[in-house]
Amino acid sequence: MSEQIVTALLSGLVALVVASIGAALTLAQQRRERARWLTDLKSGWALELHKARLESYPEVFRILGGLSHAGSPLTPEAAGQVAVALNGWFYGPGGMCATATARGAVLGLRHCCRRWARDGGRQPGDLYRWRNLTIAALRSDLDLAGLESYDFHPGSTILADLRRELESAERGPRPGEPGRASGRFTLRRPGRRGADPTGGPAGRPSRRPAVPPADGH
Fold first, then answer.
1. Which helix (H) or strand (E) covers residue 79, if one does?
2. Inter-helix orientation angle 100-119/76-90, to 10°
3. pLDDT at 22
4. Residue 80 has pLDDT above 90, yes or no
5. Exposed/middle/buried for 66, CB within 10 Å: 0-12, 13-18, 19+?
6. How far apart are CA 180 and CA 168, in angstroms?
7. Angle, helix 3-64 to helix 127-141, in steps of 10 degrees
């Protein structure tokens, strides 16, 4: 084989390797740009979604204020008005940007209020459980965990509460103590026989996080 042919083959091989490396680098750069674009898109979407929730959620909290004992005594008629208001919020901007958990909690509370307004009688025993579950789900959508502690004892200051939380975080869970709940809820339509607001069958301990206890505020 002549030197010219060998030189041509080597040149072609070098050119092929260089072209392959260039194509691989270009492809990697395109993938990085695409990943960066998707990250920016998702970040912008999450920011706009959070802004939409901050604009629409105050209305539903104002509606939930109609179930508070701080005002006039709660009646079936007042519960019916709350159900109508919740229905309007659900099919508006608030319901569009709410998570499935929050929408399910609002639907459960709406059904409970509407049932009481229709049937009358005594206040449903799960009314405030559904209300507290709704508040917890809505706050979770805003990255706000839990409900208020309602600790009005003397000496209970914000600084003291923060110190207790920091000490608890440093200690971590004790042996045999379950970890923190994830804040997720499983919802079912209220009033179904054999089911409770947590979604577990009656008479069987549920492994899901407990529904916030009813209170009278």
1. helix 76-90
2. 150
3. 84
4. yes
5. middle
6. 12
7. 140
- Within 10 angstroms of residue 141's Cβ, the number of other Cβ atoms is 18
> H or E segment at 109?
helix 100-119
Q: Has residue 4 been placed in a domain?
A: no
Whether 106 and 135 have beta carbons less than 8 Å apart is answered as no
Mean pLDDT, range 158-174, rounded to an integer: 67
Residue 40 lies in a domain: no
Mean pLDDT of 170-192: 51
Q: pLDDT at position 1, please?
A: 60
Identify whether 189 is part of a domain: no
Domains of the chain: total: 1
CA triplet 21, 23, 28: central angle to 5 degrees? 95
- On the CB side of 175, how many CA atoms lie within 13 Å of its CA? 0
Higher pLDDT, 89 or 37: 89
Residue 57 in any domain: the answer is yes
pLDDT, tens only, 187-199: 444 444 444 444 4
State the residue range of the domain holding 100.
Answer: 48-143+211-217
